[in-house]
Automatic annotation (TrEMBL):
Flavoprotein is among the record's keywords: no
Signal peptide: 1-27
Transmembrane segments: none
PANTHER family with a match to the protein in the record: ABC TRANSPORTER SUBSTRATE-BINDING PROTEIN (PTHR30024:SF45), ALIPHATIC SULFONATES-BINDING PROTEIN-RELATED (PTHR30024)
Keyword entries, A-Z: Signal
Protein source organism: Microbispora cellulosiformans
Listed Pfam families: NMT1_2
Protein's name in the database: ABC transporter substrate-binding protein
Amino acid sequence: MRKIFATVALLAAAGGALSGCSVSAGADDGKETVVVGYQSKTINTVTAGTLLRGLGYFEKRLGGRYRVEWQDYDTGAPITAKMVAGKIDIGSMGDYPLLINASRTQGVSAARTRLVSVTGYNLRGGLNSVVVAPSSKARTLADLKDAKVSASSGSAGHGTLVQALERAGLDPATDVEVVNQQPPVGASALQSGNVQGYAQFVAWPGLLVFKNQARLVYDGSALDVPTFHGVVVREAYAKERPEVLQAFLQAQIDATKYLHEHPVEAAEAVAKATGLPPEVVYLYNGRDGIATFDVTLKSRLLAALDHDQKYLKSIGTDFTGVDVAKFADDSYIRKAYGASYDADATGTVNAARISGTDAACGTTAGDPAKAGELWLTGEDTLRPAATPTCLLRQIAAATSGGGSVRAAYVPDAATGTHWFADRSVWVRDPAAEENERFKPFTTRDGAEAFVKEHARAAVVGYDEALKAAAGGASR
């Protein structure tokens, strides 16, 4: 990286060799090529990557004037390296990689980048998690003391791990051994037992849990620190080809609207393109999913980005400070978005909401802190549930009638993080109202914290909760 950075600086000093666009003429039709770097499996960037590419909205907005080259990577680091070298024009990545991107490019005008939009975010930090093997004895993050934990150095998942360990009273530098691995490599290492923990970003933790290859031990939402992914552009490119950037941002807005209006179709399209199970994609990108998709640059997200800098410095990634206010530039997305930008930039309501009538309880589903969904095999639409208890009743009724569950989603009773119902830790609270007697939690730690504060509450198994809710024994 230092060699690339030095080369860029020399070229810039020698007359701005990279100050022009990185586009190259096509050999067959003479069209210039705009290069977009994205992460197909980092599924809360899909509105600037996988989904956008599949829908063809960017190409349509360009009107055939340019050729688009899509380059797919597992993490944001190689995208940044290529942006420094002038070989990628527009890229998307997570908050920690965004900071590294800014740090690597801000000192050289030819390579300087700007954060111009957001793809998906979670205000509590739920896009990043730590999982362990299903058979692990670890119940809390503190139980990983003296263990090896796989993480991609400088990633959002790594940043969450550092902050979470600190809050758990552990020294991230000495109490755990962080093994720098790409997400697929780390997943294999966890299964083989070469590492005891796995700290990663969307959608890897959910994927491993869904496949019964891992168990969630730390929900990033417990940090209550916003996390997000965003779009960066080389500033020189944005100035020389403003029409291309505007087309990209308008296309991203189009893709975001499509995802809001067609969450199931979008999840299935992303699943087909990436090989991920659609049930996992929907967990993050579906109605009231872990990720909220909104292109605006919100002050809370930028404040969190600034907050993350001290943790990124502690990781030892050769990171220098970033002026976030200068790095973030909403002038481009503001122009593409239109008159409602200021009002919408202050809002944080997920535009893709669970709604409808709960068939089991006969009530309306709509409260995001309680509402869930049931996805049955053979059905193209998901059934809304007003509360987790009502969802259990729907599952019991469907399966007793011969139905098969593809996935069932419930919000954590404390953090609101959506999770798979059959992978959640359930608590029975006899003191609660009848339709809210069973409460799900993403982790055992979270469930036990609730039990400590509610004298009659107790942790129960999923099958026990299902049977009790179905039989009306929730009292």
